[in-house]
Amino acid sequence: MSCPNALDETYERVLRGINNSNRDHAHRLLQCLTAAVRSLRVEELAEVLAIDFDAARHGGIAKIKPNWRWADQYQAVLSICHSLVAIVYEGSSQVVQFSHFSVKEFLTSDRLARSSGEISRYHIPLSPTHTVFAQACLGVLLRPGRKSHVVRRFGDSACQIRRTVLGGPCLLRGRFITHTGCDGIFIRCGQATLGSMAPCLRHR
Predict the structure, then answer these.
(1) Comparing 181 with 56, which gets the higher pLDDT?
(2) Is residue 85 a part of any domain in this protein?
(3) pLDDT at 34
(4) Is there a domain that residue 203 lies in?
(5) In the chain, alpha helices (H)
(6) At residue 170, what are phi and psi to the nearest 5 degrees?
(7) Quick one: average pLDDT of 102-121?
(8) Would you say residue 165 has pLDDT above 70?
(9) Which CATH number do you get for residue 106?
(10) Dist CA 3 CA 110 (whole Å)
(11) Which residue from 26, 53, 54, 172 has the fewest beta carbons nearer than 10 Å?
């Protein structure tokens, strides 16, 4: 179902209103919110702001930068994404969701991809978006202090994560893959604070 033109224009205005310094942050947060297969808690989504994706762009693993974390995670998410997202209670947890189902539809639509000017940069194609989310999950899973736990839990399979090729839905040729495609071994970060921001990766 297509969004009415009025909604498209509203979302375009919101995207244009995002500060230049927050554009990359906003895109990452919206990508992860789009890719997640369960609701993300505020602290989970905000942790994306502390992930350095530079290494992942060159075939490595994204890294957590603790000094990049925002002190006020609630405000971080809302101030960066503006009215495109809302924070609601799900049980005892505060979770982030799109403010309306049409926001996700607009962000993933060809209409936004074809838009003129800067706002087309916010278009979210699903396959690369799942890759970004997987990069974030792996950055958390392999952050310093968790490596030994991962190796104990998953044995030799965990060691192969470091040979990951992050170029598409398959993270490691049929072994470590996102929820978008092939059969294989899925991994999950467990129940740590952002740690469980791996809802699109699961062990089975």
Answers:
(1) 56
(2) yes
(3) 94
(4) no
(5) 5-16, 23-35, 42-46, 54-57, 73-81, 101-107, 110-113, 126-141, 147-154, 156-159
(6) -90, 120
(7) 93
(8) no
(9) 1.10.10
(10) 12
(11) 54
Whole-number Å distance between alpha carbons of 29 and 16 = 16
Asked whether residue 140 is assigned to any structural domain, the reply reads no
pTM above 0.90, yes or no: no
CA–chain centroid gap for 30, Å, is 7
Domain extent, residue 68, equals 5-124
**pLDDT tens digit sequence for 62-96:** 888 889 999 999 999 999 999 999 999 999 999 99
Residues 63 and 139 sit within 8 Å (Cβ to Cβ)? yes
| Distance, CA of 88 to CA of 99 (rounded, Å) | 10
Kindly tell me the burial class for residue 144, based on how many C-beta atoms sit within 10 Å of its own C-beta (0-12, 13-18, 19 or more). exposed
Into how many domains does the chain fold? 1
In sequence order, what are the residues at sequence separation of 6 or more whose Cβ sits closer than 8 angstroms to the Cβ of residue 15? 84, 119, 122
